[in-house]
Amino acid sequence: MFNKWLMIYSNIADNPLKMEALKCPNCKNMGTIDYYFIPYTINNELGSAYIWCNDCKKGIHLDRVGIPKNTKIIIDESIKLDEVIPSFKEVTPEEK
Ligand SMILES: [Zn+2]
Fold first, then answer.
1. Alpha-carbon distances of 1 from 31, 74, 77, rounded to whole Å
2. Centre of ligand 1 from the C-alpha of residue 34, in Å
3. What is the pTM of this model?
4. 48 lies in which domain range?
5. How close is the Cα of 11 to the center of ligand 1, in Å?
């Protein structure tokens, strides 16, 4: 299951404007995946990634990943993450 979420990450990296074509690995719904990247510093291409499904509220949180171009990033430190990222249940690498 975790690997399928990693595929979502690479799909976003390859084609960030085609989110509606992504299918949730958990509930199989389409167009329900959302994400944010949070760079460690401004202009840093490395950061955290939050990717989740708005329907089943599952997803992943990755640290120290590359931030793809043309993706949604949060650099404004006044933004409260829990206001833009819903609480979701993290899928872990152990979950098959
Ligand atoms: Zn889902």
1. 18, 27, 32
2. 10
3. 0.93
4. 2-90
5. 16
